[in-house]
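Bit of a strange request maybe. I'm writing a small parser for structure token strings and I need a real example to test against, not something I typed by hand. Could someone generate the tokens for this chain?
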Amino acid sequence: MLAIWPELTFAECEERLRALPGGWKAYLDELSSEKLGEKLDYCNSKGQPFSARVADILTHVINHASYHRGQIATEMRASGHTPAMTDYILAALSEKLD
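Reply from user aminoacidic:
Good idea to test on real output. This should exercise your parser:
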């Protein structure tokens, strides 16, 4: 089981961040329509047990990231700063994606 809030050094965070795209690609490449409908049992960060379909978990992950980007942008504006560009389509159009 993975720790929900591990204490990592900056170098460890960078290492894990660099590994994420490959890990996601490998996972998604093997994901079938049948697997999308399968239920997974898990516990949330409060230790509460849940069971959800893989498709619903993936949708949550995508939407939850947007939620946090909005929180960060709001905090930056409130502090008098301009938030970074985080719109996917702008990154795609500017060819900043691999």
